[in-house]
Amino acid sequence: MSKEKDSDDLMIPDGWKPPGPCTKEDNPHGMVSESAFAILFPKYREQYLQECWSVVKKDLKDMGIIAEMDVIEGTLSVKTTRKCYDPYAIIKARDIIKLLARSVPYEQARRLLEDDAACDIIKISGMVSSKARFVKRRTRLIGPDGSTLKAIELLTRCYVTVQGNTVSAIGPYKGLAEVRKITEDCMNNIHPIYNIKTLMIKQELMKNPKLKDANWDKFLPKFKKTHQKKRSKPFKIRKKKDYTPFPPPMPLSKVDKELESGEYFMKQKDRNRKRKAEQIVWGATYI
Fold this sequence. Notes:
The protein is of the alpha+beta class. The chain is 43% helix and 12% strand.
Protein backbone atom coordinates (compact mmCIF):
# COMPACT_ATOMS: atom_id res chain seq x y z
CA MET A 1 0.00 0.00 0.00
CA SER A 2 2.88 2.36 0.79
CA LYS A 3 4.48 1.75 -2.61
CA GLU A 4 1.26 2.71 -4.39
CA LYS A 5 1.03 5.85 -2.28
CA ASP A 6 4.62 6.83 -3.08
CA SER A 7 4.04 6.28 -6.80
CA ASP A 8 0.95 8.51 -6.65
CA ASP A 9 2.97 11.24 -4.96
CA LEU A 10 5.59 11.10 -7.72
CA MET A 11 3.02 11.45 -10.50
CA ILE A 12 2.85 14.90 -12.12
CA PRO A 13 -0.77 16.13 -12.26
CA ASP A 14 -2.26 17.07 -15.60
CA GLY A 15 -1.98 20.70 -16.52
CA TRP A 16 0.87 21.42 -14.12
CA LYS A 17 3.54 23.80 -15.37
CA PRO A 18 6.85 24.72 -13.74
CA PRO A 19 7.00 28.22 -12.25
CA GLY A 20 8.48 30.89 -14.44
CA PRO A 21 11.77 32.69 -13.87
CA CYS A 22 12.14 35.00 -10.89
CA THR A 23 11.61 38.63 -11.86
CA LYS A 24 12.10 41.99 -10.13
CA GLU A 25 8.37 42.14 -9.34
CA ASP A 26 8.73 38.97 -7.24
CA ASN A 27 11.47 40.55 -5.09
CA PRO A 28 11.42 44.34 -5.49
CA HIS A 29 13.50 45.05 -2.36
CA GLY A 30 16.45 42.89 -3.35
CA MET A 31 18.71 40.80 -1.13
CA VAL A 32 19.06 41.54 2.58
CA SER A 33 22.60 40.17 3.10
CA GLU A 34 25.59 39.73 0.82
CA SER A 35 26.72 36.31 -0.43
CA ALA A 36 30.11 35.74 -2.08
CA PHE A 37 32.10 32.87 -3.59
CA ALA A 38 35.69 32.65 -4.86
CA ILE A 39 37.61 29.99 -6.74
CA LEU A 40 41.16 29.51 -8.05
CA PHE A 41 41.90 29.11 -11.75
CA PRO A 42 45.00 27.62 -13.45
CA LYS A 43 47.60 29.77 -15.14
CA TYR A 44 46.89 28.50 -18.67
CA ARG A 45 43.27 29.79 -18.45
CA GLU A 46 44.35 33.38 -17.78
CA GLN A 47 44.47 34.51 -21.41
CA TYR A 48 41.02 33.12 -22.27
CA LEU A 49 39.45 34.52 -19.11
CA GLN A 50 40.81 37.99 -19.84
CA GLU A 51 39.28 37.85 -23.32
CA CYS A 52 35.78 36.84 -22.19
CA TRP A 53 35.65 38.45 -18.73
CA SER A 54 33.99 41.63 -19.97
CA VAL A 55 31.06 39.57 -21.33
CA VAL A 56 30.87 37.59 -18.07
CA LYS A 57 30.72 40.78 -16.00
CA LYS A 58 27.99 42.25 -18.20
CA ASP A 59 25.76 39.14 -18.03
CA LEU A 60 26.12 38.81 -14.26
CA LYS A 61 25.64 42.56 -13.71
CA ASP A 62 22.16 42.30 -15.28
CA MET A 63 21.30 39.85 -12.48
CA GLY A 64 22.71 42.11 -9.75
CA ILE A 65 25.97 40.21 -9.23
CA ILE A 66 29.50 41.65 -9.28
CA ALA A 67 32.23 39.46 -10.84
CA GLU A 68 35.91 40.11 -10.22
CA MET A 69 39.13 38.47 -11.44
CA ASP A 70 42.44 38.76 -9.60
CA VAL A 71 45.27 37.82 -11.97
CA ILE A 72 47.98 38.12 -9.29
CA GLU A 73 46.36 35.66 -6.88
CA GLY A 74 44.67 33.65 -9.66
CA THR A 75 41.12 33.85 -8.27
CA LEU A 76 37.63 34.42 -9.65
CA SER A 77 35.02 35.82 -7.26
CA VAL A 78 31.32 36.69 -7.42
CA LYS A 79 29.13 38.48 -4.86
CA THR A 80 25.59 39.77 -4.67
CA THR A 81 24.44 43.38 -4.48
CA ARG A 82 21.26 45.05 -3.24
CA LYS A 83 20.00 45.01 -6.83
CA CYS A 84 20.06 41.20 -6.98
CA TYR A 85 16.45 39.97 -6.99
CA ASP A 86 16.92 36.21 -7.67
CA PRO A 87 18.19 34.31 -4.58
CA TYR A 88 19.49 31.47 -6.75
CA ALA A 89 21.47 33.76 -9.05
CA ILE A 90 24.58 33.62 -6.85
CA ILE A 91 24.59 29.81 -7.07
CA LYS A 92 24.44 30.05 -10.86
CA ALA A 93 27.29 32.57 -10.86
CA ARG A 94 29.36 30.30 -8.60
CA ASP A 95 28.85 27.37 -10.99
CA ILE A 96 29.78 29.55 -13.98
CA ILE A 97 33.18 30.51 -12.56
CA LYS A 98 33.77 26.87 -11.57
CA LEU A 99 33.18 25.76 -15.15
CA LEU A 100 35.34 28.55 -16.56
CA ALA A 101 38.22 27.37 -14.36
CA ARG A 102 37.77 23.83 -15.73
CA SER A 103 38.27 24.71 -19.42
CA VAL A 104 34.57 25.07 -20.29
CA PRO A 105 33.98 27.83 -22.87
CA TYR A 106 31.74 30.67 -21.75
CA GLU A 107 29.36 30.04 -24.66
CA GLN A 108 28.38 26.81 -22.91
CA ALA A 109 28.74 28.02 -19.32
CA ARG A 110 26.26 30.86 -19.86
CA ARG A 111 23.51 28.23 -20.36
CA LEU A 112 23.33 28.10 -16.55
CA LEU A 113 21.62 31.49 -16.60
CA GLU A 114 18.55 29.67 -17.89
CA ASP A 115 16.24 27.96 -15.39
CA ASP A 116 16.05 24.62 -17.23
CA ALA A 117 19.83 24.03 -17.20
CA ALA A 118 22.21 22.98 -14.45
CA CYS A 119 25.75 21.66 -14.15
CA ASP A 120 27.44 18.70 -12.54
CA ILE A 121 31.18 18.46 -11.87
CA ILE A 122 32.15 14.80 -11.34
CA LYS A 123 35.45 14.07 -9.64
CA ILE A 124 36.89 10.89 -11.13
CA SER A 125 40.41 10.90 -9.70
CA GLY A 126 39.57 8.84 -6.60
CA MET A 127 37.54 6.18 -8.40
CA VAL A 128 40.58 4.23 -9.68
CA SER A 129 43.65 3.45 -7.59
CA SER A 130 46.13 2.86 -10.43
CA LYS A 131 47.29 5.90 -12.44
CA ALA A 132 47.75 3.92 -15.68
CA ARG A 133 44.30 2.35 -15.32
CA PHE A 134 42.77 5.78 -14.63
CA VAL A 135 44.25 7.27 -17.82
CA LYS A 136 43.07 4.29 -19.86
CA ARG A 137 39.48 4.50 -18.60
CA ARG A 138 39.38 8.27 -19.00
CA THR A 139 40.50 7.85 -22.62
CA ARG A 140 37.79 5.20 -23.05
CA LEU A 141 35.18 7.74 -21.91
CA ILE A 142 36.34 10.24 -24.56
CA GLY A 143 36.58 7.66 -27.34
CA PRO A 144 38.51 7.84 -30.62
CA ASP A 145 38.47 11.46 -31.85
CA GLY A 146 35.87 12.25 -29.15
CA SER A 147 33.20 10.02 -30.75
CA THR A 148 32.00 8.45 -27.47
CA LEU A 149 31.74 11.86 -25.79
CA LYS A 150 29.80 13.20 -28.78
CA ALA A 151 27.33 10.30 -28.61
CA ILE A 152 26.77 10.97 -24.90
CA GLU A 153 26.10 14.65 -25.65
CA LEU A 154 23.54 13.83 -28.36
CA LEU A 155 21.64 11.33 -26.22
CA THR A 156 21.63 13.32 -22.97
CA ARG A 157 21.39 16.82 -24.53
CA CYS A 158 24.25 17.91 -22.29
CA TYR A 159 27.58 19.52 -22.99
CA VAL A 160 30.29 17.25 -21.55
CA THR A 161 33.99 17.98 -21.24
CA VAL A 162 36.77 15.94 -19.64
CA GLN A 163 39.59 17.95 -18.13
CA GLY A 164 42.22 16.53 -15.78
CA ASN A 165 40.59 14.76 -12.85
CA THR A 166 37.04 16.02 -13.44
CA VAL A 167 34.17 15.60 -15.89
CA SER A 168 31.99 18.70 -16.31
CA ALA A 169 28.47 18.49 -17.73
CA ILE A 170 25.89 21.22 -18.52
CA GLY A 171 22.30 20.47 -19.45
CA PRO A 172 18.88 19.38 -18.15
CA TYR A 173 18.64 17.60 -14.80
CA LYS A 174 17.61 14.26 -16.29
CA GLY A 175 20.52 14.32 -18.72
CA LEU A 176 22.99 15.16 -15.95
CA ALA A 177 21.91 12.04 -14.04
CA GLU A 178 22.60 9.91 -17.12
CA VAL A 179 26.01 11.54 -17.65
CA ARG A 180 26.99 10.82 -14.04
CA LYS A 181 25.87 7.19 -14.34
CA ILE A 182 27.84 6.65 -17.57
CA THR A 183 30.94 8.31 -16.08
CA GLU A 184 30.87 6.32 -12.84
CA ASP A 185 30.26 3.05 -14.69
CA CYS A 186 33.15 3.79 -17.04
CA MET A 187 35.53 4.36 -14.14
CA ASN A 188 34.25 1.08 -12.65
CA ASN A 189 35.33 -0.77 -15.82
CA ILE A 190 31.94 -0.81 -17.62
CA HIS A 191 32.28 0.40 -21.20
CA PRO A 192 30.18 3.50 -22.08
CA ILE A 193 28.81 1.79 -25.20
CA TYR A 194 26.53 -0.38 -23.02
CA ASN A 195 24.81 2.64 -21.44
CA ILE A 196 24.72 4.44 -24.79
CA LYS A 197 22.91 1.50 -26.37
CA THR A 198 20.40 1.44 -23.48
CA LEU A 199 19.71 5.17 -23.89
CA MET A 200 19.12 4.75 -27.62
CA ILE A 201 16.56 1.99 -27.00
CA LYS A 202 14.79 4.09 -24.34
CA GLN A 203 14.48 7.05 -26.70
CA GLU A 204 12.95 4.83 -29.39
CA LEU A 205 10.48 3.39 -26.88
CA MET A 206 9.48 6.89 -25.75
CA LYS A 207 8.41 7.72 -29.30
CA ASN A 208 5.84 4.88 -29.27
CA PRO A 209 2.69 6.06 -27.42
CA LYS A 210 1.61 2.46 -26.70
CA LEU A 211 4.87 1.60 -24.97
CA LYS A 212 5.40 4.95 -23.29
CA ASP A 213 3.94 3.84 -19.94
CA ALA A 214 4.71 0.11 -20.25
CA ASN A 215 7.46 -1.91 -18.57
CA TRP A 216 10.66 -1.77 -20.64
CA ASP A 217 12.63 -4.53 -18.94
CA LYS A 218 12.08 -7.01 -21.75
CA PHE A 219 13.29 -4.51 -24.36
CA LEU A 220 16.43 -3.31 -22.61
CA PRO A 221 19.62 -5.33 -23.09
CA LYS A 222 21.05 -7.14 -20.12
CA PHE A 223 24.81 -7.15 -20.12
CA LYS A 224 26.67 -9.57 -17.93
CA LYS A 225 30.20 -8.99 -16.84
CA THR A 226 32.36 -11.85 -18.07
CA HIS A 227 35.66 -12.68 -16.48
CA GLN A 228 38.20 -14.30 -18.76
CA LYS A 229 40.05 -17.10 -17.05
CA LYS A 230 43.77 -17.03 -17.21
CA ARG A 231 45.69 -20.00 -18.58
CA SER A 232 45.61 -22.81 -16.09
CA LYS A 233 48.69 -24.64 -17.34
CA PRO A 234 52.17 -23.10 -17.28
CA PHE A 235 54.44 -23.17 -20.30
CA LYS A 236 56.95 -25.48 -18.61
CA ILE A 237 55.56 -28.42 -16.70
CA ARG A 238 57.98 -29.62 -14.07
CA LYS A 239 57.67 -33.21 -12.96
CA LYS A 240 58.01 -33.75 -9.28
CA LYS A 241 60.40 -36.45 -8.14
CA ASP A 242 59.27 -39.19 -5.81
CA TYR A 243 59.74 -38.26 -2.23
CA THR A 244 62.28 -40.33 -0.26
CA PRO A 245 63.21 -39.70 3.36
CA PHE A 246 66.82 -40.70 2.70
CA PRO A 247 69.41 -38.25 1.40
CA PRO A 248 71.05 -38.85 -2.02
CA PRO A 249 74.21 -41.01 -2.02
CA MET A 250 77.53 -39.23 -1.63
CA PRO A 251 79.77 -39.13 -4.71
CA LEU A 252 82.90 -41.36 -4.64
CA SER A 253 86.14 -39.67 -3.74
CA LYS A 254 89.47 -40.29 -5.52
CA VAL A 255 90.59 -42.75 -2.83
CA ASP A 256 87.30 -44.64 -3.07
CA LYS A 257 87.70 -44.96 -6.82
CA GLU A 258 91.29 -46.29 -6.42
CA LEU A 259 90.12 -48.77 -3.82
CA GLU A 260 87.35 -49.94 -6.12
CA SER A 261 89.72 -50.46 -9.08
CA GLY A 262 92.50 -51.94 -6.92
CA GLU A 263 94.96 -49.24 -7.94
CA TYR A 264 95.30 -48.12 -4.36
CA PHE A 265 97.25 -51.26 -3.40
CA MET A 266 99.69 -51.09 -6.33
CA LYS A 267 103.15 -49.68 -5.96
CA GLN A 268 104.19 -46.36 -7.47
CA LYS A 269 106.18 -48.05 -10.25
CA ASP A 270 103.26 -50.24 -11.19
CA ARG A 271 100.99 -47.23 -11.26
CA ASN A 272 103.28 -45.31 -13.57
CA ARG A 273 103.68 -48.36 -15.83
CA LYS A 274 99.90 -48.76 -16.03
CA ARG A 275 99.37 -45.11 -16.88
CA LYS A 276 102.01 -45.20 -19.64
CA ALA A 277 100.41 -48.29 -21.10
CA GLU A 278 97.04 -46.54 -21.13
CA GLN A 279 98.56 -43.52 -22.83
CA ILE A 280 100.18 -45.70 -25.51
CA VAL A 281 96.92 -47.50 -26.15
CA TRP A 282 95.08 -44.22 -26.33
CA GLY A 283 97.66 -42.74 -28.75
CA ALA A 284 97.50 -45.80 -31.00
CA THR A 285 93.71 -45.59 -31.19
CA TYR A 286 93.89 -41.88 -31.92
CA ILE A 287 96.34 -42.39 -34.79
